[in-house]
Structure formats: C-alpha cells, structure tokens
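ugh ok fine here u go
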Amino acid sequence: MDNITEDNFENTAIIVSDGCCVQLGNLQVLDDVTFSINKGKKVAVVGPNGGGKSTLFNAIAGLIPIVDGSLKIKGMSPEDARGTISYVPQKDLINKNFPLSVKQVVEMGLIDRKSLNLFSRKKINIKIKQALENVGLQDKIDENINNLSGGQFQRVLIARGLAQNADILLLDEAFSAVDVGAQEDIMNLISDINLDGKTILIATHDLNNLEEKFDEILCLNRHCCAYGDPSKVLTKEVIEEMYGSHNEMFKYHTTESHSKNND
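structure:
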C-alpha cells in the first residue's frame, strides 16, 4: 500500500506548461515553453542571462500574464494558485536601510493573514519560530538583518517562504552572493525541505554536479531546450543550444508568430 501511495505521489503533475509564451513590451521573453513537473521534485532551472528564468518564475507565481499557451499550477491558473506558491525572487525588495529584525522579515510571508486577534498573533509567532527552526536560525530571531551573513540572510528569505506553508517553493538564484560553504549549507537545507514533500524550483547558473543535487533539470533559453534527469538531458548539444548562438532566432520574435489561444 505504501508503494502505491509513493508512486501516485511521484506521478502527480503539479506544474504543467503547455506552449507558454510571455511577452514584455515588444520582446518575446518566453516562447512555446512546454514541460511538466511532478509533485515533490527538486528542479534546477538553468540557462543564460536573459534566457527567461526569472520571467518563468514570475509567470508561475502569477505576477505576470502569459500571452499564449497555458500554464497550470495544481490544475489552476497561476493567479488562482497563488496561495500554494512561495517565491523568493533574485532581487528582494527588502530595504536593508530600515532596521528590520529576522522575525519581521519572516512575518512578511504571513502578510495575507488578516486576523489580528490574540490567538492569531500566537499562531503567527509559532509559524515564525517553526520556519526559523527549519532553517537553523531560531537563535537569530531578534537579530537585525544587517548583522547577518549573505548565507544567513538567504536562509531568512527561505524561512519567510516556509512560513506560508506553500506546496511549491521558487528560489531565484538562491546561491548568488554567498560563498561556497554557504551554498552547500543552503543546498542541504533545500534537500531537507524537499523531503517534506514540497516541490522546489531553483534558478541557478551553476552547472556543476547537478545530477547529485537535483532530481530534474529544466534547460531554458526563452524556450525549453530540454527537461528531465540531469545526467541524461544536459548534453553538449543542449548546452550549446542554451549558451550558443541559438538565441539569435528569437531576436525579432513576437507573438504574431502564433495563432492566439483564448483558453
């Protein structure tokens, strides 16, 4: 019986992109992006700067519209699925000139919880403490964020996402601006979170040892160059398609290349 449950868990598609297109101004940033990610997977999203990684995360999070194709999160539109997604963007909007504590930053993840009665405040404090325990920073709860290292601050942002109890965690360049040791700590943390059944997507520039760190890899250069087991899909041809001259074919591409899909 346990095996059946595990198999069903592994084969449940949670993010399905079918010909997804996103246009920003006159630029076609994502073109005909197609993939399907099953629940509980740990996925690396790789590709060049300008290849659409952050745009894809913004589309999944329901922050920007798609202009063609479809994108479904647990069978819903990204807008309707927002409560199931936690997004840690590459450039966080937190103003570090303002004296914020670790607790206050994590609480930002609970900003949609509107009840202000005492019982709710207790529940919020419990969620904050649990999230910080999960990232190993419970002793820093009252610390000013300016006193944290880059790796510690990144873990605070992850804790903010965990406080939302989301099924899907999007981490855009989680390893940027931190040293190698902190990268390893964050990767171990992400693996532990993943074991809790969460689906985790991480945009990264690092192509080293992906098969050891991730279940699957999504290779993106404005379209999906490849998706699947890192040891199988990250071929020389795919790397050339991502980082070579392939992007020239998109230079003057617009949505007029597609027939409109109103579904």
